[in-house]
Design the sequence.
């Protein structure tokens, strides 16, 4: 497992995943186990949690202590906020978003899920599919996580019984279809004893599938396997004005990240919302020319024609240009303790553009436990609702289901500058 | 799950692209940002990332070092040289000036000035009206940092309130602040110590010499190697040994310890980092050993 023999290059990219479940499901123990068995936990950290375990009167090292964070969390024995953990196997680097499982759960889980490409949903083998399992699965599919792993944990407490596992799997599949979850895998495990996480263990011989880590190692790193339209929101315009270097006099570099698709020198492009067209003259990174740029790459684009482009504009391929819109239908998760006020104007940040926005209507609020639609006149923290927003200026958007980067937005309260809502268009 | 078909970035390329995106967001959203540059390995990565983000233009921010006056000469000399090579503006503000002004008062002459950097930093923020400070902190360094945002909001006293941070979704960063408030931006949040060393090797970044193995007089204390310097002389009864060491981090002399190592090349450092059994801060930081929550406490008081 040591990264040493595989240095320096990790060839299988980076995978971001999320773990959902409460402390009771053994989520912290599972993360601790992954870190421990992948040899990410170093001696001094282990030493510290050994001491804490002993102080709290435990006989074995409590791996869940590895994810203990802030002072208030340690004092109260709960997790308050999303924490990020890292490990590497030599083949791949992993970022775990660890979201806590109590009151503020929806908000935290949506936050953690927004950057994840895979979710591990923990189910206690003794309790089976719970209301919470449905909530987690719904939120994961809402935020567009393409791959789910249902980890049936605590198999040690049901004597590693295959029938219990199969029953949970059947129960889960019965409702997963309704949610439109496509790629879901099931794995029995014991985080406490380390069975089927990194090592197979000896007590789950009836399970023939891959270990949890094997699934993670082979999961696609890209958010989607589909070819996507090219979208390049402009973050910053580079005009060096270097009098010592006349070559740079006319240099205009449009700096940003390829949010989706790819671009090649010579491609015909359109700048939105203005609609001006040109061709890509050059693609650069740190002054070095590149023949093309792919999804998630940060680059600088130079165009053949001199057109007025500034931060907030978006460069697309001319053949794939969407229509700018001034009204959007979206699913919104309210994140703030201050409820949404239908009378107020908010700021919507979509890609690199900020526009003023007002609520036009709330279609319904979603009751997360039953997925029932309820009428609503306002939104409180953790509410999820279908809404229509009116915008002061047009934005260039795609449906979230088609494009995670150009389909997402956040809502900002200008009086506090807080991020108060998260939205998905479509 | 289907097999890998779509072309994706290697993990270092992905981390680099994310960091460049964050730097450009700071430049695009903030009126007057600054990049905190100490001459240490993490901030040297930041400078390379800033070159990739903004060249052939100038950096849209100056560099700032908060100098405790207790830094290794090798590091401060390197800091000055690197800033000059890049042709970027370096501002240095010193904790000693804050002591002269009376805004930093040490409990005793020997107290470490490390945590007092917060005061000098806040004074510099006020002096120049900076609305964002870009720093090289990483979430893998310490448990309070694991919950840190990429754009971290600080109130007008520079305080970090872990319970009142802005939710951060997708890559839609909110770096807005009112006058007097401040954003701390951490472009390499998602990097680990090993990622940093791999990036240094790939980019062939130059480093201050004390990162590489050298012989230095030290005293063994509390499981750490304490360097014997003018500032930290050996006390009566101390056994001074000449040991082959290197620094994993290069902070304040009074609270940063070297580790025993014969790694005198980047390859050897990488091999050592991949197989080390002690965390970066655990092996090297005397200040983090005081209590389980000492980093969290410093951050609440305005630390980086």
Sequence:
């Amino acid at each position: 497992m040591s990264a040493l023999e595989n240095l320096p290059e990790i060839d299988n990219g980076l995978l971001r995943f999320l773990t959902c479940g409460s402390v009771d499901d053994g989520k912290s123990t599972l993360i601790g186990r992954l870190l421990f068995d992948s040899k990410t936990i170093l001696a001094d950290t282990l030493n510290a949690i050994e001491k804490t375990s002993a102080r709290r009167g435990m006989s074995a090292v409590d791996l869940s202590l590895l994810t203990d964070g802030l002072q208030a969390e340690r004092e109260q024995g709960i997790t308050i906020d999303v924490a990020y953990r890292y490990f590497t196997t030599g083949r791949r680097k992993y970022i775990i978003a660890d979201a806590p499982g109590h009151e503020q759960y929806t908000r935290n889980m949506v936050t953690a899920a927004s950057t994840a490409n895979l979710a591990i949903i923990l189910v206690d083998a003794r309790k089976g599919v719970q209301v919470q399992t449905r909530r987690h699965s719904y939120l994961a599919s809402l935020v567009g996580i393409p791959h789910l792993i249902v980890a049936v944990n605590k198999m040690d407490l049901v004597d590693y019984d295959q029938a219990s596992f199969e029953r949970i799997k059947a129960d889960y599949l019965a409702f997963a279809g309704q949610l439109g979850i496509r790629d879901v895998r099931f794995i029995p495990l014991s985080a406490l004893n380390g069975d089927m996480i990194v090592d197979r263990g000896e007590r789950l011989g009836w399970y023939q599938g891959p270990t949890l880590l094997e699934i993670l190692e082979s999961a696609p790193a890209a958010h989607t396997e589909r070819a996507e339209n090219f979208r390049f929101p402009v973050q910053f315009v580079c005009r060096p004005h270097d009098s010592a270097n006349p070559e740079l006099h006319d240099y205009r570099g449009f700096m940003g990240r390829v949010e989706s698709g790819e671009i090649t020198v010579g491609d015909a492009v359109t700048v939105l919302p203005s609609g001006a067209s040109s061709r890509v003259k050059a693609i650069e990174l740190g002054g070095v020319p590149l023949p093309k740029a792919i999804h998630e790459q940060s680059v600088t684009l130079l165009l053949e024609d001199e057109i007025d482009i500034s931060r907030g504009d978006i460069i697309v391929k001319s053949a794939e240009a969407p229509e700018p819109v001034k009204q959007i239908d979206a699913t919104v998760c309210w994140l703030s303790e201050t409820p949404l006020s239908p009378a107020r104007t908010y700021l919507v940040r979509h890609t690199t553009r900020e526009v003023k926005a007002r609520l036009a209507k709330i279609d319904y609020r979603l009751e997360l436990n039953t997925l029932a639609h309820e009428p609503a006149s306002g939104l409180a923290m953790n509410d999820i609702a279908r809404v229509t927003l009116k915008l002061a200026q047009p934005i260039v958007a795609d449906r979230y289901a088609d494009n995670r980067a150009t389909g997402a937005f956040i809502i900002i309260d200008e009086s506090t500058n807080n991020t108060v809502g998260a939205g998905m268009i479509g | 799950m289907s097999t890998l078909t779509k072309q994706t970035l290697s993990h270092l390329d992905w981390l680099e692209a994310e960091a460049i995106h964050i730097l450009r967001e700071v430049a695009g959203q903030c009126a007057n940002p600054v990049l905190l540059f100490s001459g240490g390995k993490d901030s040297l990565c930041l400078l390379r990332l800033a070159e990739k983000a903004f060249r052939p233009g100038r950096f849209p921010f100056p560099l700032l070092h908060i100098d405790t006056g207790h830094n290794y000469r090798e590091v401060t000399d390197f800091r000055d040289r690197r800033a000059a090579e890049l042709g970027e503006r370096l501002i240095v503000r010193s904790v000693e000036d804050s002591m002269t002004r009376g805004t930093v008062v040490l409990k005793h002459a020997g107290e470490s000035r490390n945590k007092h950097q917060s005061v000098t930093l806040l004074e510099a923020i006020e002096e120049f009206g900076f609305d964002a400070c870009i720093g090289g902190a990483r979430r893998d360094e310490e448990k309070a940092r694991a919950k840190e945002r990429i754009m971290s909001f600080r109130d007008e006293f520079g305080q970090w309130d872990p319970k009142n941070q802005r939710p951060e979704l997708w890559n839609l960063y909110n770096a807005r602040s009112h006058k007097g408030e401040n954003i701390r931006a951490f472009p390499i949040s998602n990097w680990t110590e090993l990622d940093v060393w791999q990036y240094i090797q790939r980019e062939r970044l130059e480093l201050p010499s004390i990162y590489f193995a050298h012989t230095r007089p030290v005293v063994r204390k509390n499981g750490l190697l304490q360097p014997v310097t003018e500032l930290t002389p050996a006390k009566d009864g101390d056994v001074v040994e000449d040991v082959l060491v290197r620094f994993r981090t290069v902070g304040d002399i009074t609270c940063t310890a070297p580790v025993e190592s014969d790694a005198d090349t980047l390859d050897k450092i990488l091999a050592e980092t991949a197989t080390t059994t002690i965390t970066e801060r655990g092996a090297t930081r005397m200040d983090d050993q005081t209590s389980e929550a000492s980093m969290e406490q410093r951050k609440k008081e305005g630390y980086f």
